[in-house]
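**Folding the chain**
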Amino acid sequence: MNQLSLKEQLALATVEQQQEFLNKYSEADLERILNTYEFKARPKQFFPTGDWRIWLLISGRGFGKSFVGSNWVIHKAMTQKYPIALIGSNAADTRDYMVEQGESSIIKQCPKWFIPQYQASKRRLLFPNGVVAILYSAEDPDQLRGFNGNSAWCDELAKYQYPDETWDNLQFALRLGNHPQIVVTTTPRPIKLIKQLWSDSAVIKTIGSTAENRSNLAQSFVEYVYNKYSGTRLGRQELEGEILMDVPGALWSYSNLDQYRVSKAPELKQIVVAIDPAVTAEEDSNETGIVVCGIDENDHGYTLEDCSGIYHPNEWALKAIHLYEKYQANYIIAEVNQGGDLVLNNIRQVAKSLKKPYIPIKGVRATKGKFTRAEPSATLYEQGKIHHVSNFATLEDQLCTWLPGEDSPDRLDALVWAYTHLMIKYQDSTESESPW
């Protein structure tokens, strides 16, 4: 089966074949044909026919998921009268990637005569024919309780903070028309909801790879990512679109995280903000791990938030102090193996510049290997004594793909320091409270 779009086939044809195609149509017809979705889409990107309810499109990076989702929304806006829900992992992603910024966004993909008006204050797109598409964030699933429509596009479902709650609320909200439909476009992660959809025989499923869209991607990007990740587990997930299950030998598993995941933490007797600082803050630098964790009266741990990222020292200190205040934490815990007193002094000086009152800061220094530090925390997870409050996609990917002997990623390290302080207190690290 030819997996190229008509546009790609025409680009590869001889000059004579191209001219023969062009001569078949008037200038007006050519302009119309060359701008249709059917001309630009590859066969895997064609919308399913029939009375289906859910189309699950799982693919690698750069396959063209947003291109599909945007054009499906445009098609629905043109062919039916009911409201459409646009759901992204957060408000910024919904607005930027789905609605207005990227080349594959709805506004950029609309024909000139059908470009909708984006009403930011109302979180909606108003199409020229009166059809409305309403923007939602998976960070607030309850928003969907007020929606009443016929269609929905869920982008990056596997990375939603509250995937189950968002999905359940959406099912009750699609109650207009004869055949409500949902398009899910996502990179693969083996969370419970994705596995349920994949095993549902009523769900239409499509898997796509990055390579299938290489004609629309920078050649340097294709060469770089395939040279670096081809043949690796991460490459199979992020390039080939495979749903990979638990990694043999890994200390954490997706199935365990899903089994003990909760939507809300109980009252906690102690909360800490744990930091694993990076040495640099360049584009290709390691991240600074910043994770918030707590413990309840039954000595169960709860992972509350992951705010890790590439930050300059002033930025990660500000972030940590903000989280300390947001959660009314008891301590900021910071690894000092690489920065020593500079790490603690950085937090202290930023707090003073903000005229903050005393903040308890504890420096921790590893004296043994990463596996020795990580294994007790992983054991507590396996015993069901640690729970994630919602879904932390990047953190969980690091936990479930790290193998002992490899360099451990920074989010994982920050989380381990948090639970070492809260629940373990074994003697392979040193901990000291910083004077103010």
